[in-house]
Amino acid sequence: MDSVILKTAIRFLLPLLLLASVFLFLRGHNDPGGGFVGGLVVSGAIALYAIIDSASAARQMLRVSPRILIGSGLLISLSSGLAPLLTGRPFLTGLWTTATTVGLGELHIGTPLLFDLGVYLVVTGVTVVFIFSLLEE
Question: What is the pTM of this model?
Answer without folding.
Answer: 0.89
